Amino acid sequence: MTESLAITKFSDLANPTRFLALAARILPWLSALTTLLFAVGLYLAFSTEGDYQQGDTVRIMYVHVPAAWLSMMCYSVMALSAIGTLVWRHPLADVSHKAAAPLGAAFTLIALVTGSLWGKPMWGTWWVWDARLTSVFVLFLMYLGIIALNRAMDDPSRAARVSAVLILVGFVNIPIIKFSVDWWNTLHQPASVIRLGGPTIDGEFLRPLLVMAVAFTLLFFTLHIMAIRNEIWRRRVSTQRRMAARLAGREG
Amino acid sequence: MGHAFYVYTSYGISGFVTLALVLWTVIDGRARRRELAELEASGLRRRSAAPMAETPRS
Amino acid sequence: MTALLLRDLKLSIRAGGGALIGVLFFMTVVAVIPFGVGPDLNLLSRIGPAIVWIGALLAALLGLDRLFQTEREDGSLDLLLMQEHPLVLVVLVKCLAHWLANVLPLVIASPLLGLFMNMDEVAIGAVMLTLLVGSPALTFIGAVGAAVAVTLPRGGLLVSILVLPLCVPVLIFGVSASYAAVEDPAPFLPPFLILTAITMFFAVLGPVGAALALRNAGD
């Protein structure tokens, strides 16, 4: 059986060696595509005209919205991996949600900071305690809590299983974030891109926004694959060190 | 302060965080790869990698 | 199951008076607030319900890390895991015992603190009622945190960090229901019913999550 045929089967990804081979093959393409999309997206973001109402600040949207979208998608990826950990005892799933947590925290931080910088000229304040902002802030705290829990435990597989439970319980926050703008009538504007009846946003702003969203998503997947690879290597190093120590102890 | 200040600050911070994330991931990967190479050089190999012909240095 | 409930109740009342310490902590937190915001009675009566709720939330988290830790230390946790009773039920009973021994005293003490905060009778009653309905949710959420951190030697602080973000909805609806009882235009019933729904939701999710974490935290 040739390598490329085997890789097409998703279940074979369970084998870390196969995953490493696949990662080595697609990572250059993925990172090149990400860079290209970022270049196009940034060019579009600064060449389009400003909104007549919001002026130049509408350009903040092109980083704020993709980062906020990723902060939720990253948690969903982690929740899926957590199911993989608990139900199928999938060895890569453990690694996957551990590697995704810092990425999610970073994207949530970007969304919060850019949102705050957008809010100052538009709403006249850096921060309001409305439903959307508060729930995203809670999401940020949950990412940090999961990272802290992962760091507090020595045994990696037990840490993975226990934090998987926490991730799944914390998943109740995601629908709250998604629908907070619809359920509560607050300052933050409701969704304008993905909704029934088509986007309410002008095509002029939609184009750079979509390019940037795809670029951010690809960036997430590139970094996620790299982080998973690092984690696999880290575990191999520690296993081999332990083996070496045992051998040395036996023969020494 | 004009609006440009807010725009460039937010782009700057996002760029900084993203770059830090990318650099951290890449540097971490390099370090792990170096450790693996060192272990490989010292004669240890993964059990599945080769027939057990190696003579581990003790 | 009744035997387990009684045993847990007896233990928590006897062992060092955990309930009393919780109530003392609650009173201290609430008593510190006027020093921070000044002794303005009008302001205090306005923020009173929120302060009492936050104090109760913090005090309820205080004893949570001991929920499964003592069992783990003396080995009875393994017995609970091996029993023929479903673990989810065992966790539910343990949560109930913890709530009765540690959180119910807080609810009973809350009217007294309401008087300190210059709240009127309706507000005191509303806070007590919402605490009575909402605080089980805090215990159920906390059980997940306690189960997750059960193997950690110093898990107490981590439990609070993990649990507090999840407690936010309970706090929001508890406080808004208490305010709705005092301020006329806002209806009391909708936030109160949502609070009840949250408690029932976590009464299912909490024990299931905690049981899952306990099974996986073992070796």
Structure commentary:
The complex is a heterotrimer of chains A (252), B (58) and C (219). With 252 residues, chain A is an all-alpha fold. Chain A is built from 8 helices and no strands. The longest helix of chain A is centred in the C-terminal third of the chain and has 49 residues, at 203-251. Chain B is 67% helix and 0% strand. Chain B has one helix at 3-41. Mean pLDDT of chain B is 75; it is low at 50-58. Chain C is 84% helix and 0% strand. Chain C has helices spanning 2-14, 18-37, 41-62, 66-74, 76-82, 87-116, 121-148, 156-182, 189-217. In chain C, helix 2 crosses helix 6, helix 3 runs parallel beside helix 7 and helix 8 runs antiparallel to helix 9 (189-217). The longest helix of chain C has 30 residues, at 87-116. The chains are: A mainly alpha (252), B mainly alpha (58), C mainly alpha (219). The interface between A and B is medium-sized, with 38 and 30 residues.
Question: Which secondary structure elements does this structure contain, and how are they paired or packed?
Answer:
The complex is a heterotrimer of chains A (252), B (58) and C (219).
Chain A: H1 3-8, H2 16-47, H3 61-88, H4 91-123, H5 131-152, H6 156-170, H7 173-183, H8 203-251
Chain B: H1 3-41
Chain C: H1 2-14, H2 18-37, H3 41-62, H4 66-74, H5 76-82, H6 87-116, H7 121-148, H8 156-182, H9 189-217
Instruction: Give the strand tally of chain B.
Output: 0
Strand content of chain B: under 5%
Radius of gyration of chain C: 18 Å
Average residue pLDDT of chain C? 81
Rg of chain B is: 22 Å
Distance between the termini of chain B: 67 Å
The helicity of chain C comes to over 70%
- Unreliable spans of chain C are none
How would you sum up the global shape of chain B? rod-shaped
Report the mean per-residue pLDDT of chain B as an integer.
75
Biggest sheet overview of chain B: none
The SSE string of chain C, one letter per element, is: HHHHHHHHH
